Amino acid sequence: MATIDVNGTAFGYDETGEGPAVVLLHAAIGDRRMWDAQFTALAATHRVIRYDRRGFGETGGETGEHAHYEDLLALLDTRGIEQAALVGASMGGACALDAALAVPERITRLVLLGSGLTGHTWPDHMQADFARLAAEAFPPGRLAEYQARKRTPGPADVRAIADANLRYLVAGPERDVSVLPPGMVALVREMCEQVYRHDWTAPQWTEKIPDTRHRLAEITTPALVVIGTADALGLVELSRHLAESLPAAELVELPDTGHLPAMERPDEVNALLRKFL
């Protein structure tokens, strides 16, 4: 693994292949390792870049005010890339949408897998599910202590929150983790534990939140919206909303698939990417 300096910060980063540029933007419960299958497959026809967002993986989270899409655009500038296709998973999809709105002339394609949306308000039922999972994972008040940096996270609690994410998001609320490939489960657990260890201990920074929610109709970049039907209902609803709101979007629903189809069904996702890109 390598790093690249962007705006004075060292970002974990990999690049391979030649051809039109495509950037892989990871989910908030992982890091750039989630793209192993796509990073290799797309290199046959594309210049492929993956990196760890600010505060994830090998990238530090310095204090101050930052925006993930501004880091993305600065990375493109650093590598001399004028235009790129963006493939974003979960909150990586939100970053891709923010970039497409900010500099539409630089983004050639959007692929949104189980995408988030910057500033989106999750439905009450989804927030209630998260609250229930936190209550099952921790004694009362402990999560708040971690979020406020008032308690050093123990290994058991880090594992508990990672397992909660595996059950609810990665497998999906109606499926058991046992349906997922074992190697995938091990890697997602490792990445997710790292996310929370960092989030509960590292210096805090403020994310600048662009108003993307109400401007989706302005994003005319061709888009492929992919959602696993076993994902949490709030995410399925959001993907359908994105497909309806983006003027040039196509929706693909993958049956019996959770929140990370790029890892759970890499061959199917790679085929979709090759065709769309």
From TrEMBL:
This is Alpha/beta hydrolase. It comes from the Bacteria. GO terms for molecular function: hydrolase activity. InterPro entries: AB_hydrolase_1 (IPR000073), AB_hydrolase_fold (IPR029058), AB_hydrolase_sf (IPR050266), Epox_hydrolase-like (IPR000639). Keywords: Hydrolase. GO terms for cellular component: membrane. SUPFAM superfamilies: alpha/beta-Hydrolases. The lineage of its organism: Bacteria, Bacillati, Actinomycetota, Actinomycetes, Pseudonocardiales. Pfam families: Abhydrolase_6 (PF12697). The keyword Hydrolase applies. Residues 22-271 form the AB hydrolase-1 domain.
